[in-house]
Amino acid sequence: MEQREGATDTTSQPTQQQLDQQPGDVALTGRPEGTTTTGTAPLLSEDDTTTYRGRWEDIQAGFVDQPRRAVEQADALVDEVMQQLARTFTQTRSDLEAQWSGGGEAGTEELRVALTRYRAFFETLLRR
Prior knowledge:
Elements: H1 16-21, H2 46-62, H3 67-101, H4 108-126
Helix pairs in contact: 2-3
């Protein structure tokens, strides 16, 4: 089927703008959270983020009295967050692979949410 000049192909993949601006992004907990200021799905649940930030603040406060202990605790906390992220991405991949191997097809929305999470994590890793 030939497309007219200037016509929009509605069967194509979503544009980057659509990926960035879709409402109703889903947090890792699977519940709707709305988009973030960057338009991507959050990497961690709101509760996990609050807990990790509180622990970080405690670590920083302890630096004055016990700097070595604070650095050790910071290392452990970062490791814990990385492990949480690894488990989340492993579960996302497993869920998608289970659908594909069962002959099913993941919906565009599920794939969009997965891609926005990967992009958010990727951009975080490359941020200066």
